[in-house]
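Handout, section B. The chain below has 60 residues.
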Amino acid sequence: MTTTTRYPIGTKRRTGETCPESGIWKVDDPIWTTTGPFAAGNRFPPYKDKAVTWVLIQYA
């Protein structure tokens, strides 16, 4: 049996970086509160035309 190491909840990535872990990601901002499902390998988009930090909050 093989085990897969997952990125921990709370992992952060910036707009334009590659998503390392499929799951639900949230914009890390005190004003904007949006989430989105992202698959590993996809690039994180901007939000409201701004570069943002995305935080992993739930595994897929």
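Note. The chain has no helices and four strands. Compare this with the example in section A.
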